[in-house]
Amino acid sequence: MTDEPEGAGMRLLLVEDDNHVAAALSAVLTRHGFEVTHARSGEEALQALVPEGAGFGVVLLDLGLPDQDGYEVCGKIRKRTGTPVIMVTARSDVRSRIHGLNLGADDYVVKPYDTGELLARIHAVSRRTAHEEPAPGGESALNLGPVRIELPTRQVSVDGSVVQLTRKEFDLLALLAQRPGVVFRREQIISEVWRTSWEGTGRTLEVHVASLRAKLRMPALIETVRGVGYRLVAPAA
User: Fold this and answer.
1) Cβ 208 vs Cβ 169: under 8 Å
2) Which of 69, 89, 97, 226 has the fewest Cβ atoms surrounding its Cβ within 10 A?
3) Which residues contact 224 (CB under 8 A, 6 or more apart)?
4) Is the CB of residue 231 less than 8 Å from the CB of residue 182?
5) Can you give the residue ranges of the Response regulatory domain (predicted)?
6) Three-state DSSP class for 148?
7) Are 57 and 83 in contact (CB under 8 A)?
8) Alpha-carbon span 228 to 187, nearest angstrom
9) Contact residues for 115 (Cβ-Cβ < 8 A; gap 6+)
10) 85-89 and 11-15 as β-strands: parallel, antiparallel, unpaired?
């Protein structure tokens, strides 16, 4: 850890119904420079985010809430604000994680998690959000067969129909689309999209690739190059 915490000055909304867990986690996050607000239910969390995200840098959302389904809360949060959401879930299966990402979550951690892992993910989503920029090269749009990627507006469409992507999904797709057919190493993708070299992000990369394939309904668009990384295979027009 550095002497100056990366979380210094960042407001974080912790959505957790267990007061003991929340107290312990709040203490850790506070020591690392975060200003923590605790919401005990989905409704409290939604109220805390009014108006326009209420200045929070990250939402840490436990899915096991007493009043509403955590996935439903995630979807409602995304409709209200672009604040990054990290899901905390006891479900380790890929389908559950993809479901959360489809609803707009930016990342996830699986219980039981290491505090260092959680901090790394918080820092990664906050750094990426703070540094979001259009892709280099001055192009305003990328056309790949039926897929159109609007860089300034961060909008993706397939055959003219808009596909809703999370920020990380868009960044991943835009990166690969810059150089169709070129293999991007996993380490390179993680560095460019997640702005971190932390090794544990590799699992998140796999889930985001799976989510992109499902949302675009083009499983062959992103090809896995075993032992190396991924490349985008440009479809026929």
Assistant:
1) yes
2) 226
3) 209, 230
4) yes
5) 11-126
6) strand
7) yes
8) 9
9) 28
10) unpaired
Instruction: For 12-59, write each residue's pLDDT tens digit.
Output: 999 999 999 999 999 999 998 899 999 999 999 999 988 766 788 899
Asked if residues 186 and 146 have their Cβ atoms less than 8 Å apart, the reply is no
Q: Cα separation of 196 and 215, whole Å?
A: 25
- CA dihedral in degrees (9, 15, 19, 22; nearest 10)? -40
Helix/strand/coil (H, E, C) string of 12-31? Answer: EEEECCCHHHHHHHHHHHHH
Helix or strand holding residue 141 (H, E): strand 141-144
- Within 8 A by CB and 6+ apart from 47, the residues are 39
Tokens 């007493």 correspond to: 66
Q: How far from chain centre, in Å, is Cα 90?
A: 18
pLDDT in tens, 183-232: 999 888 888 887 766 555 667 888 899 999 999 999 999 999 998 999 99
Q: Are 12 and 37 in contact (CB under 8 A)?
A: yes
Q: For residue 168, which of 211, 139, 199 has the smallest C-alpha distance?
A: 211
How long a stretch of residues is the chain?
237
Q: What is the DSSP-derived secondary structure letter of residue 50?
A: T
